[in-house]
Amino acid sequence: MSDNSLPKLSRILIILVCILQGFLTYITDHNDGSLLSQRQSTILYWQALSLVLPLVFAFTIVRLKDRFLWQSLTICLVVVLLTASWVNWNVEEVESINQYDGIVVPYLCSLGILMFIALPWLQTRIKNKQWNVSYATIYDHLCINAITVIFILLLVVFFWGILWLCVELFKQLDIHFFRHLFFRNNLFIYTINGFLIGVGIRTCRLQTHLMKAVRNLLTIMVKGLLPLLSFVALIFMATLPFVGLEALSGTWSPSALLITMIGLLIIATNIVYKSGLKVKPYPAPVRMMVNASLLVLPLYAGLALYAISIRVNEYGWTPVRVWGYLAIIASAFFSCGYAIAVVRSQRSWLHPLGMINRILLPGCVALIILVNTPLIDPYRISVDDQMNRYLAGKVTADRLDLPLLRFDNGKRGQEALITLYQNTEFVSNTQRKQRLEKIMSENNRWEVHPDIEELKQIHPKFMSDFVQQKLILAKSTLMPEESWWKMLQNNQQVDIDLCLRDSDVCIVNSLDLNQDGIYEYLLCHIEQGSDISCHVFAKQREEWRNIGHAYFPPSTVNVTYFEHALREGNVKTKLKQWHDAEVGNEAIKIYYPDME
User: Of 39, 442, 461, 528, which is most buried with the most CB atoms under 10 A?
Assistant: First the structure.
């Protein structure tokens, strides 16, 4: 059943504007030789405006001559220009697309979240000609918009899935025309995606009754899942006192999981709340369990704050931690608000929830705007904190995270590196100065020695010598034979280039893993903040092969002790407790996942 209140011209404009959005996105991403490439500072404005304005127009338009529509677009234009101006200042002097994307992508994502939260108010402003409307109206628009986004994603996935099937079918006939047309033509990809977005928005805006039916169906599903989610939240909080907070502080980053639990409970509660406002949605015992889970939400927020505070105290602020901290603060306000709603509910279930959401959702909009302004600039906070930690002696010069300053903090990070280069104490150490110069000359954090590829192709002997100089042989480990070094350079399973970076350590140990009297080699790669990888090499039929490997996060071991033990050659074999089996003459390898 359709809602014909949307004029025919508006339906056409929705699709045309979304196609235009796809075309503009294509221009900003592929602008070699164009006017935009000559004026780099304008690209971010194009990216932000082409993301926000077409979608706001498509979601809110009713009649083209409606002055409230153009007022809403003007508000969006002002917000985008103000925030983009500050973010653009942060990327003024970056030298590579990786550094640019590291700042611009979070900004564009924050704009998307901002737009999703603010859209219901813009839609009600245009439809009802006023800002002050009931929470039920805001909730209806939030739900319909969320369903629209899901529908668009499904439409895009199915469309491109069908095109992929077409390409694969014709590939069997050795016809590759469709592959180049569909998946190698960026203009086609961007404009078709814009068209699909326009079709999805237009369809969902017309089929209002169908959208409400889908919303009701989702409400029934969530209504059944909310008690289970509440039960999980309660048993986790009940178990924690017996385990202790050390269990949380020992993991890599539990904050994201804790925030996810808060977000799921808040979303699920809102969906059930809308249907259960007049009639209590559950029997008394189940309702008490749901209420109890909402009452412990502030504890979840407090634990998330505790977990991220540990990381900040150990390693200082980074842009990611600033974003995470703000998300935790927002979740803490929601958690406390929902706990208050449980306490103050008397006649009807969670009666104050609508008023709480009407206050906190605009607060989230304000917070997202502020984080993209000088007031709460994550890059200023990150760089200032890292430099202050160094100047205060909390972190030594050798442990200062130079890649973080270079690649994750835009213009401020570049200025911090220049300050360090002008610091006579910092550059007094020759190795430290060379490391700083190398970082400043690189365009991304994964870049290796600039002459590596040339050495591989032109001077293989020099390359072999360079690799031997960079790898560390543990004590009592004999120099491997020349064939082992050659194998290592050409091995597809081991990225030896990682060992050539100044920030990484690769250590070689020799040990007899199969007790046959012949030594194998264990090569372990240690990178700060990343997984530790170890590879085992054995000589089989006069040829060296990679026969085993292990990967594990640094949170599972004491990295400093682990590296020291490797250097000292403190490595020995350990027999497995559970053996394989042999049936007749047939060997059966058994994997014991619960025993290892």
Answer: 442
Checking if the pLDDT of 377 tops 80, the result is: yes
CA distances from 314 to 306, 311, 338, 474 (A): 13, 5, 32, 29
Position 149 scores a pLDDT of 95
- Give residue 196's identity as a one-letter amino acid code: L
Q: From the centroid of its chain, how far is CA 14?
A: 30
Integer Cα distance of 489 and 487 in angstroms: 6
Taking the alpha carbons at both ends of the chain, their separation in whole angstroms is 58
For 20-29, 318-327, 528-537, which range has the lowest pLDDT when averaged over its residues?
528-537
- 522, 536 Cβ separation under 8 angstroms: yes
Query: What is the distance between the alpha carbons of residues 226 and 222, in angstroms, rounded to a whole number?
Result: 6
Which of 317, 326, 321 has its CA nearest to residue 371?
326
Q: Which two tokens stand for residue 72?
A: 């809403």
What is d(CA 413, CA 90) in angstroms, rounded to the nearest whole number?
A: 9
From the list 263, 233, 254, 222, the residue with the least C-alpha distance to 364 is: 263
Query: Under DSSP, is residue 583 helix (H, G, I), strand (E, B) or coil?
Result: strand
Question: What's the CA gap between 484 and 521, in Å, rounded?
Answer: 9
pTM over 0.70: yes
Bridge partners (DSSP) of residue 551 are 533
- Note whether 402 and 417 are within 8 A (CB): yes
The H or E element spanning position 194 is helix 186-206
Pairing of strands 543-552, 532-540: antiparallel
Six token digits for residue 378: 């994550």
Q: Are 185 and 193 in contact, with CB atoms under 8 Å apart? A: no
CA atoms within 13 A on the CB side of 332: 14
* Residue whose entry in the numeric block shows the structure tokens 């240690």: 526
